[in-house]
Amino acid sequence: MKTQIVLYDGFDELDAVAPYEVLLAASQRGAPFEVELAHLEGPREVTASHGLVVRATRALAEQLDLLIVPGGRWGDRSSPIGARVEAERGALPAAIGRLHAGGTTIASVCTGAMLLATAGLTRGRSATTHQVAREDLRASGALLVDARVVDDGDLITAGGVTSGLDLALWLVEREAGADIARQVGRQLEYERRGPIWRRPKG
Amino acid sequence: MKTQIVLYDGFDELDAVAPYEVLLAASQRGAPFEVELAHLEGPREVTASHGLVVRATRALAEQLDLLIVPGGRWGDRSSPIGARVEAERGALPAAIGRLHAGGTTIASVCTGAMLLATAGLTRGRSATTHQVAREDLRASGALLVDARVVDDGDLITAGGVTSGLDLALWLVEREAGADIARQVGRQLEYERRGPIWRRPKG
Fold this sequence. Notes:
The structure is a homodimer.
Chain A: E1 2-7, H1 13-28, E2 34-39, E3 44-47, E4 53-56, E5 58-59, E6 66-69, H2 83-89, H3 91-101, E7 105-108, H4 113-118, E8 126-127, H5 134-139, E9 143-144, E10 149-151, E11 155-158, H6 163-176, H7 178-187, E12 196-198
Parallel strand pairs in A: 1-2, 1-6, 2-5, 6-7, 7-11, 8-9, 10-12
Antiparallel strand pairs in A: 3-4, 10-11
Helix pairs in contact in A: 1-6, 6-7
């Protein structure tokens, strides 16, 4: 599964790094994730919400199996960087919308959900986000679900920050089975917590 | 509290990034942490265990209140980078030993404890580490405690990877009070889990 985690200035460190480490650890155990850190405009250093400087090694691809979108600073309206600024700028939500239209599964952590909402992807869909953005997400037309991870098929959203661990372990379980997910959880000494909501089949 | 998190090639991403974000989030709420990412030899890009490239902005200081030491790749004896390589090289453990002798509180996440052990700091002290290194830590003369965080005063150790969240939230509670620790846990949507072991007073 060709997978990218998209970084932008102001992304929340753990929103991106937790899924990154989980998916890499899973791929080392045979899960089929090929994971890259991308920036919309190409390789560069990106400054995260709390000041961590991380290298994005790729441009956001035009074709992907899975895209993970972190949040960051949605609640800080005066911040010159972060998810709200990216929503207002519009280029990143537009790219997310194009990927989704092309068949990419889109997953978000924390207020990354608001970039999906800005792309128009959450209307009428089940979703969740960080507590600070729940009302904004509801206003986008999403059906808010009180769960740590909400799997609505090609749109998977998670709660705040550390819920990215549960999102990624769920993705591992979904794509590679519960056994590898258990192994990775044990390696990271993480006890998953739920609930995980899945759209009923049929 | 002048605090550094020391990075080296092969450090485990979450071992360092989780405490970084927790302490920064706490300092934004008034906790007295001044946090820097350091490398023994000065500012540089550092490649973590799963490939994340992060910028260390400082050289390891000669005087600190608190040093946090991540682990990484201790269990992989063939790895050309990581905590085991740093232990064999010796320069980083020596620097950790000098800081401790100068009054710095040393905290470790995961197999970072083995760098403290190599520095000779764990003999006769209560400590913990990632499951993969418990016997090595015991062989260093440490008194292994079955806890997620072990606070032995000027030596504080934690279990594997995600226990760095609990380590850092404990440091926040210890230095700035339980109320700020609760606020940060809530912001990160993290439910702390224990146990936390503290040396009995007296």
